[in-house]
Amino acid sequence: MTEAPKYFDEMFWPDGTARVPYAEYSDWFGTEDVRRLKRKSAQAEALFRLTGITFNVYGAEEAGERLIPFDLVPRIITAQEWTILSRGIDQRVRAINSFLHDIYHRQEIVRAGRLPAEMIAQNAAFLPQMIGVAPPGNIYTHIVGTDLVRTGENEFFVLEDNARTPSGVSYMLENRETMLHMFPELFSKVKVRGVSQYPRSLRRALSASVPPKCEGPPTVAVLTPGIYNSAYYEHAFLADQMGVELVEGHDLRVVDGRVAMRTTQGYKAIDVLYRRVDDEFLDPMTFSPDSMLGVPGIMDVYRAGAITIANAPGTGIADDKAIYSYMPDIVEFYTGEQAILKNVPTHRCSEPDALAYVLDNLADLVVKEVHGSGGYGMLVGPAASKKELAAFRAKLMAAPENYIAQPTLALSTVPILTNAGLAPRHVDLRPFALASPGGVEIIPGGLTRVALKKGSLVVNSSQGGGTKDTWVLED
Amino acid sequence: MHLKISHTTVYDYSEPVPYALQQLRLRPKSRAQQNVLSWKVEIEGGKLQASFEDEHANSVDLISFDPGVRQIRVVSVGEVEVRDTGGVVGRHTGFVPLWLFQRHTPLTRPGKGVRDLVAALDHTLAGLDALHALSRSIAEAVPYSTEQTSAELSAEDAIAAGHGVCQDHAHIFISAARLMGTPARYVSGYLMMNDRIAQTASHAWAEAHVEGLGWVGFDVSNGISPDARYVRVATGLDYLGAAPISGMRFGKGAENMLVKLHVEQQ
A253, B19: Cβ pair inside 8 Å? Predict the structure, then answer.
């Protein structure tokens, strides 16, 4: 009798035969020479270096630019699975936009007793300057990257709603491009839905969100903090792919009541600014006065209805990890439906009972900073040493409100190609959704992040994770 | 009372200014206790770029300087009919939750000075009585003085200085009220003075939210609650949120500001 496997392997049954979605891919793989594939893998890396898709890792100064490793075994999702996931994401994105409108207006959800006022009051992402501001179509978050994990055949959970500035979409596009380039024959065997329309869809979604003062065809631009930002490549890539200008704060000023960019023909008004500059640095006249990255006066022009900022300032209130634990209520409150996608059960350490439970079960839990991101400052109980547990316990007790805890999820695995052949590694998935007054569009695919280290559950690129091409099969 | 106000602010620069923006919170609005009969804001050397209502329902104008100017002049004139409501402004309206007015800002963060002041109050008093007592004790501890304290002094710094102007009094009151659990805000506006028309600066006071009454004004510097001589122009969590003019300027050179203010009864 064999023990049931601890983790759901998305490609293989426990007996080693391929599951249905991977059947064709597996047949193809069986006819391939692993050494040839490894050579292809090296080619892929060279290709990435050539296109310049690199990622600056915080805290790794010696490697100013490091490549996120790409694994050439795709992550495959069936049409039926995708239908459920995309419906769930659509519902969540609609709920988040309604939530943001409510939070910056009447706060009905607080009045109804479904969300404690402190969740807003004590949240640094809540911007009083956004109170009463209703962007076109009441769309606050235009670009959302919902992090999903899988634990079983039909078990998907939302891990995080990235509603402020989700990054990584350039990897989704480049990974597909690379796969098409390396294995064109594979795509004639397996019918995979395309993702290359993303830049067009993004531009369409942004253009559909023009402010009332826009006249004529909408002018869109991408605002980047500059070349030292870890995602600069993505900013440049998206601007290029959309066919719009990439600008920095010093290229912009207020002209004739609009935010305008310097061009060779003088100043040109921007209707929609896809900004990749954080709220705090967006406008030194309204937020951090020392910011050199932003555009003085842009918030005033925005509040006067003469530019659309995507995503809207203050959207971070919706993707905070403490708010996350209320997402099932938020979805229900605004859509009148049960959430299609499940939340991971979350203990809010600010609550004394929850804190006591978390302290008693620290070794089994994952503890995260409420305002943290990128896998920093988190504890993975089962993987932590006694010393690390003790140190974290002290941090937790000193400021419990800064933490939430979740059970360690048995993340599904998809194989990666190693020197010894295929080997299972844990994955997550970040599909990208685009919201505009016309509705929500979800690109069939996404960024699959994979923990390259055997047994590791941390998929963040900043912590040694890699990426895979994500295939959504045609019906 | 029918008041006529003319408020001119002139900025002179030692060198031409290539680019600058200013946010103006200079336009009063009609409310229960005041009716704005006429108002206009004119700019020389600059241009109106955007107008909007901020989260506190203040009318805000964003202006830009004409490239290369050495002087900008902002003239705000109008007439307002005010009635005495004993300082009561009324029920809290708008979308800003009351808890926001209990949030400390860098200018109102209480330290030892504010804590001591609150601790010394008669704790048998509550509501309006407690706030009036607070106002009196601030005026005693930090007497009014026209001797200019540096601009943007915090409540704590003003207590340490031992004297203050209306802005300092308002900040100390706000800081202490919030410490006592009372929502409080800063008000910038005008005061008609009985003995003169020409003034050198606009006025400021504080408002606290009192259960049952709503917002009530407290002018610590004059030891009263605002009456028919007071025109409310803008409110905020502190001076920075309600300042008549704030801005940012590119380029080098020194700035010199001159205020000419006339407030007279018609």
Answer: yes
